[in-house]
Design brief:
The protein has eight helices and 14 strands. With 265 residues, it is of the alpha/beta class.
Length: 265
């Protein structure tokens, strides 16, 4: 099976300016497609910005809202799948969500963040309750988490057991936690034997200073592609053959003893 070339858009766009963020996404999709990518991943809440405070309710939209339709046009125009973060409105509730739009413009998966970080997120968002959401792209099984979710090893292991090969994690990692991008994410990829595309915001928004350092971590625990601290588009390959060989050499999933772990839950 050929590799799935994946582009990571490290950017904060313009907080509160949906139209401007869609332009940034469109330009990144063109560059990603030009580099041969079949998948573009953007950061947490990229559609609207993260630190938008009281504007969250006004910017929130349903999963099939105008933002989704605009992203679908981008995906079709450039012939690649696009994952974007956005505040999802469902009745009276708002979720911190990420949606994967396929190259044909249809929604492949929509995930609601299950672990909300800090008082800001807990004030505005409802926690999701579906831990494993997956889709298929070019024969690769893709899973979705958001930011803080990946810091819980149970979440990543649940994806591994469900067959996820590439885990997409749009994030808004801020100071003083750069070690999450530098160390935790590659370890998660190794201990659960998968690729993880961890895609961060950058710069300052309100009280938050984001660390950048987006990466595509491989099942060998190394960063196969790594961004710096500023605005950047990085590209890396998800190689199913390398993943299969790594899983054969590192049989964590095979050697588990679930009967011993009941007390952990």
């Amino acid at each position: 099976m050929p590799s799935l070339r994946t582009a990571l858009l490290q950017s904060s766009g313009r907080p509160g300016a949906v139209a401007e963020n869609l332009k940034v996404l469109d330009e990144a999709a063109a560059r990603a497609a030009g580099a041969g990518a079949r998948l573009l991943v953007s950061p947490e809440l990229f559609l609207t910005g993260y630190a938008v405070g009281d504007a969250v309710p006004d910017l929130a939209e349903p999963a099939d809202g105008p933002g989704a339709r605009a992203v679908a046009e981008i995906a079709v125009r450039h012939g690649l799948a696009v994952l974007y973060g956005y505040p999802e409105r469902d009745g009276d509730r708002i979720f911190n969500s990420a949606q994967l739009i396929g190259p044909d413009g249809t929604s492949s998966a929509n995930y609601r963040k299950t672990h909300l970080f800090g008082s800001f997120e807990q004030k505005w968002f409802t926690a999701g309750d579906l831990p494993v959401v997956q889709a298929e792209l070019d024969g690769v099984r893709i899973g979705l988490l958001i930011c803080y979710d990946v810091e819980f090893p149970e979440n990543v292991r649940a994806h591994a057991l469900a067959g996820t090969e590439l885990l997409l994690v749009p994030t808004a990692l801020m100071h003083p936690f750069p070690f999450v991008a530098e160390s935790v994410v590659p370890v998660r990829a190794f201990e659960s034997q998968m690729y993880i595309a961890y895609v961060n915001r950058t710069g300052t928004e309100g009280e938050f200073e984001f660390t950048g350092l987006s990466c595509l971590a491989g099942p060998d625990g190394t960063a196969r592609a790594r961004a710096g601290r500023g605005e950047e588009l990085v590209v890396g390959d998800v190689d199913p053959g390398f993943l299969a060989a790594s899983r054969a050499a590192n049989p964590y999933l095979h050697d588990r003893r679930p009967g011993l772990y009941g007390s952990l839950a």
